[in-house]
Amino acid sequence: MARVSKKKQEEIRRSIIHAAVEMFSDKGFEATTMKQIAREVGIGDATIYKYFSSKDKLIFGYYGLQAELAVEGFMQEPDLESYSLQEKLQLLIDIYLEKLLPDREFVGESLQMIMQSPSILFEEVTPVRKEFVGVIHDLLTEAEQSGEIEKSPFTAYTAKLTNDFILAILLYWIKDDSDEFSNTTQLVDMSLSLGIEILKTGIVSKMTDLVGFFVKAHLFRFMGSGFLNKMILAKSFVR
Questions:
Q1: Residue 38 burial (CB count, 10 A)
Q2: Exposed/middle/buried for residue 21 (C-beta within 10 Å: 0-12, 13-18, 19+)
Q3: pTM for the full model?
């Protein structure tokens, strides 16, 4: 039996996801079986499990795929290097929502199901989180190096927080009934503007320095007063 190339495997994986979304939308999640999806794609009943072990995995496979496509589209944007940090983040969010738009009804139903199962949510979003967090982290690092924003010891955390922000925007967008989702656009613009201004001030780093100063100052003070020695001595008596 001929070995399936990685390119062919990726084609099959995407075909399975697309077929699953269509069937979930038409028949409903519960009424659709893995066997039906496999036959729709034209693969063996057992073969589909080599790609996705369950229907839940298929749903997150969909979000992972859309994240991949959004990043691909983002990286191919002409003159991307000339964009500001805010413009880059805005573009990434816009492209992601555009990718989800054709399946908006499915997105709404699947998100509702995911949010009702917190254990599934936190366990399964890792692939999507990695897809966006890596790109966001790079954008923040580039902005720090260029002097657009202040350098921060919490860049990695900020990238994860921005990823969570994108999830919040997605949840807002799915309920947005304004003309051409203008409310979502305004929310993203205002939120990013505020976030970028905070990053420009370097307030996070300054707060960290302040906390560090107090910790060190009080630590030396306690050491000078023999406080630590007293604490150690007290513990020895308790034992």
A1: 20
A2: buried
A3: 0.80
Rounded Cα gap, residues 101 and 104, in angstroms: 5
2 has pLDDT over 60: no
Residue type, 28: G
d(C-alpha 57, C-alpha 7), whole Å: 21
Over residues 111-139, the pLDDT tens digits come to 888 777 655 555 555 545 567 999 999 99
Domains of the chain: 1-53 (1.10.10.60), 58-201 (1.10.357.10), 204-239 (no CATH)
116 φ, ψ (degrees, to nearest 5)? -85, -5
What pLDDT shows up at residue 131? 75
Are the CB atoms for 71 and 100 separated by under 8 Å?
no
CA-to-CA distance for 76 and 72, rounded, in angstroms? 6
Q: What is the pLDDT of residues 61-112, one digit of tens each?
A: 999 899 999 999 999 999 999 999 999 999 999 999 999 999 999 999 988 8
